Amino acid sequence: MGVTQAPPSPPAATARWQWSLAGVAALGLGVAAALAGYADAHPGDGATLLTLWFSGMLQLKSWFTTAALALVVVQVLSALAMWGRLPGVRGDPPGWVGTLHRWSGTVAFLLTLPVAFQCVWSLGFEDEPSRVLVHSVAGCLFYGAFAAKMLALRLPRLPSPVVPVLGALLATLLVVVWFTSALWFFTQPGLPRV
Q1: Contacts 24+ apart (CB under 8 A), 26-34
Q2: Best label site of 45, 96, 164, 189, fewest CB within 10 Å?
Q3: pLDDT tens digit string along 119-161?
Q4: Does the pTM of the predicted model rise above 0.85?
C-alpha cells in the first residue's frame, strides 16, 4: 500500500500566503524601525513623565515590565494549552483558556505602553553600554512583533506555525527586555525599589 500525498497547493494560493507573510514581516520591521528612528531622533532629556504611585520612572518601568512578564507566562501556558502542547493536559482545553489568553495578552500589552512611552520619549534610543543597546533593540522589535502578530491573526490562509512563532518571538523579546532593564534595576544597590 502506497503513501498518499496531499495534492500540491495551487500556485496562486501559495503566492497569496507568501505575499501575506511578506506583508506581516514588513509591518513588523516597519513598526520596529519607526520606533527606533523616532527614539534615536528624539534622544529625550530623561525627564520623568509618569510615576503613578512609584517614587520614580525606573521603578514604574521595572514593576510594570515585571507584571507584563508574569502575564506573558500566562500567555505561554494558555497558548500551549490551546495548541494541545501543554504537558499533562489531555483533550480540548476548557473554553475559558482562550479568553484568558486574549485578556492576559491585552493587559500585558497595556502594561508595556507607559514603559515604552517613557523609554522612547524620555530616554531615547541608546547604544551604550551594550546592555542598553540590547534593551533598545529588543524593545523596538517587541512592538514590531506585536504588530505583526495582530495582523497575522486576521489574515486567512497563513501557514499554521506563523502565529505561534510570532507569539514565541513576543515572549522571548519581553524576556530580553526584562533581563536588560528590570532585572538590572532590581540588582542595583541603593536604589529605592518602589
Answers
A1: 27/144, 27/147, 27/148, 27/151, 28/144, 28/145, 28/147, 28/148, 29/144, 30/144, 31/143, 31/144, 31/146, 31/147, 31/148, 32/140, 32/141, 32/143, 32/144, 32/145, 33/140, 33/144
A2: 189
A3: 888 888 888 899 999 999 999 999 999 999 999 999 888 888 9
A4: yes
